[in-house]
Amino acid sequence: MKLNNNTLSSALPDIQVAISYDVLYGDYDKVNPFTFIKGIPTIAILNFVVELQNKVLYALSDTPTQKQMIKEMCPWLNDKVRYKAWQFQKKHKMPLLMFSETSFLMFRLTLSNYVPFESDDEELDLCQDEMEGVYKAILYCNQIWTDHQSHINNIHRIARDSMSLAKFSVSLDLPIVEFKFYKDFRTQLYKAVQFFKFCENDPTFSTYLPYFYKDCKVLNWKEYLLQLFNFFYASLKNKYISLDDHRNPLPTSLHDFFGQFTIDTNDKYLKNLWDDNQGMKYIRDHFLLRVSDKIYLLLNANLLVDKIYQGMMFDFWKCVKNNQLLTNGKQYTDYKHFSSIVGENFSEPKMLYPLLHKCFDNKVDVMHEGNFFRAKGMKGEPDFYMREGNSLFLFEHKDSTLGDPIKLSKDVEYIKQQVLERICYDGIDSSGKYKRKGGGQLLFTINELLNNHIFDQYDHNITNIQYIFPIIVTTDSAFSSLGISALVIEAFNNIIKERDYKFGAVSVYDPVVVDIDTLIKLCYLLSVKKINLKEVMLNYLSTNTTKICPFSTFVRDNILKNHIISEEENKFLFDELFENS
């Protein structure tokens, strides 16, 4: 899109524009999308949608592939509609046919209208007379997403205000950010192994494991991860995966294990999948369709990878909840309570600390964990303190998630509030309670450090500090959506003004939101000094002039784009984890 403000437009990427139903047909308000796919076998539609989805690998910047997909659609449209599609391509520099939200809506629409596949018909592809109907359904799903964005202010007005642009970006990107690119299997595996090893050694969580194994139909966590990994590896070659218990003997049946992720075509809930707001949740938990006795169609590889850690954690919580398992003799009140216990006992001390040591041991001058300060009775301590020369890096770890009700909300101010209350806040929150989180906590720490000198006894060269880098480490990739960094920086600066913080001659940089997956990907490069954290931070902050770009995108485009993962790097990440396992 073109922006009026030259300064903003020169720093912003082009934005893809989805071709939607109303652009081509004009009767969006009058049609029932189920009529488009009436009588078409569900497996044939899903086969086609998954194929389109996998062509772009959720890389929304893959414009040539998107243009080609629209071009391939045109022959199936009538002359009048085809002409409109061509005109759309000419008008928009970056047209878009298939993206994550489209595919998930199509999964829900198709499964809500489940039509069995005739066993004597060996052809899985759509028939010629079915092609236009399926394309119309895809365009209809695009329209739903386009309408979802219609509450955002006029683009030309947004261009005059960088913060409005940030809100626009968040609203646009937040619902799809976790599916734009294939998730890195390695980072999920790294976190999962750390979690399960923690569970084995924790007096409380070790008692939860047998229940989890029973629910997942596995003997142990290694079997759980191995079966997911083997399935994922097979999916790299084909969207249809064959399970053969004879060639792959395992202690439990593969079909029993993967049955928990398989769509039950007899489930009466499928009829409500299209209209129910929880429809996406069902797809997250059921991403396989059984085609035959041994053949499964994988709807979305990211959902499979998610079950290694992120999605697995929700399943772990369900297991704890359903079995009424206790913590300190009491039941958990809700998922928020559970995740806070996980964050306090695992995420920070057993995942973040070891990871930062792995990155920086013997590379910096001073390192202190948050637990070290807490043991000294310090209040307002950082989760991790690290100094290299005259540069101080302060880490605040937030094990929080943004659920679908937040991601899909049409209220941008509500989204902003929920984001900031989780990772950058100092004040009375929406529940009426005082809360200091993330960036707010870091500012309190910086003030204590510079003005009240509470860290002097732990770092004798603290007076040499000239630069401070506040870093907020998150566990949910949703916080790496476009625009969230701008919201956090604005809130950070507002807190400085409201609290009247004075930092003298020390330069306190804008906070950087770093998802832990990105930190895991950079771990080896930081450890062998192929990159330097200060240089990476300065390059990111200096190039992110609009503050819209997330740190993860900067890293992917500028550091990891041409990086080839070596065997040495994999050994560095995983050999120690699997010792004695």
Molecular structure report:
The protein has 581 residues and is α/β, with parallel strands linked by helices. The chain is built from 26 helices and 15 strands. The strands form five sheets. Strands 8, 9, 10, 13, 14 and 15 form a six-stranded mixed β-sheet that branches. A three-stranded antiparallel β-sheet has the order 3-5-4, sandwiched between helices. A hairpin with a 2-residue loop joins strand 9 and strand 10. Helix 3 packs antiparallel against helix 6 and helix 17 packs parallel to helix 23. The N terminus is likely disordered.
Observed structural traits:
581 residues, alpha/beta, 6-stranded mixed beta sheet, 3-stranded antiparallel beta sheet, globular, disordered N terminus
* Overall helicity: 40-55%
Amino-to-carboxy terminus distance: 52 Å
Number of helices: 26
Percent strand equals 5-15%
Q: Which structural class matches the secondary elements?
A: alpha/beta
Sheet with the most strands?
6 strands, mixed
- Low-confidence stretches at least 5 residues in length (pLDDT < 50)? 1-12, 152-159
User: What is the radius of gyration?
Assistant: 25 Å
- Calculate the mean pLDDT score and round it: 89
The total beta strand count reads: 15
Shape: globular
Counting copies of identical and different chains, the oligomeric state is single chain
